[in-house]
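Notebook entry, structure prediction.
Reason for the run: the old model in the group folder had no record of what sequence produced it. Starting over properly, with the input documented here first.
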Amino acid sequence: MLDGYQEVPDAPSAAPATPDDAVLLDAYSAAVASAVDRVAPAVVHLQTKRRGRAADAAPAEMPVGAGSGVIFTPDGFVLTNSHVVAGASSIEATLIDGRTLPAYLVGDDPDSDLAVLRLHADGLAHAEIGDSTAIRVGQLVIAIGNPFGFQCTVTAGVVSALGRSLRSASGRLIEDIVQTDAALNPGNSGGPLVTAQGRIIGINTAIIRAAQGICFAIASNTAKFVVTELIRHGRVRRSYIGVAGQTTPLSRRVVRHHGLATESGARVMSIAAGSPAAAAGLEVGDILVALDGTPITGVDTLHRLLSAERIGVAVDLTVLRLTQKLELRIVPGARPEG
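New structure, fully documented this time:
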C-alpha cells in the first residue's frame, strides 16, 4: 500500500508451450506429411477439352474444364468426379513428375458423380481405397487436389459429419456423403480425401459456396461399388420400372385405414410405353408405398430400392389407387443407357 493505492500485480503472461505441446504439434505435422508423401504421387491434374468452333475458325478442341483425380491401381485406373469429365471429347492427365498423358474414359456414372479413367504408362504410383465405414467424426483427414490449377495442394481438417445426402446433377440422391472442414476449392473436385494412414476414404465432390468449412466427399465404399461396375460394364447397372414420379404426402386417415408404415409415397406422373410398369398395370396417379414389403417414402427411396440385384426378379409392389390398396407383381428391367 502506497499513498492509499494498492499495488496490483502484473497480469500473468501466456504460458510458454510445454514440451508435450511441441510433441503433439510435431505428431500432427508428421501424420499429415506422411499421408501426403504416400498419396500425392498418385494425384493427377485433369484438363478436359471439347470439340467446338471459334469465330471464323475450323473446328478444334478447346479447354473447357479442369479437376483432379487419383490413381488407385498400379495399371493406371483413375477415379474422379463425373462432373469433371462430363461432355469431354478428350482428357489429359498431368502427373506430379510433370508427365502429361492422355486419359481414356472407362465409365461414367452421373448418379453417383463418379467416373473411372485409364492411363497407359509404366511406373505409376497409386493410392489405396480404404473403408469409409471405419472413420469417425472428428478424425483427421487430408484433401489433396489441384484447386484453381495449383497442382498438388494439400489441406487438412476433420470429419465433420457422416451419412449426409447430396443431390447429384442427374437428380438422384447420393447417400453416405462424408462432410469435412478440409478446405476445398474449384479444381479439388475428383481428388482424394485420405486418412493419416494415406488411405482414400472419400472423393471430394462439392462445397457450399456461401459457407465456410462445409465440404463434401463421396464415401469410398460407394466408390468401390461404382468402380467395380464401371470397369466390368462401363456403367452402373440399376433396375428400373419405367415411371416418372414425385414424392407426395399421405393423409393420416389413409395411413391409418390401410395400416401403412409410411406417411408419404411416390406418385406416378407418367409411364413409359412398353416398360415393366406398363406391363404390370400401373396407372398415372397411383401412389407407390412399398416394394417387397419395404416402405417407399418417396422417389429417392424408390431409386435406392431399384438396385441391380432386382433386374429380372419379380417383386411385389404395394400401390394406392384412389381408395384401394393394391398388390401388383412387377419385374424390373435393366435401366436403358442414357
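Summary: The chain has a mean pLDDT of 89.
The old model has been moved to the deprecated folder.
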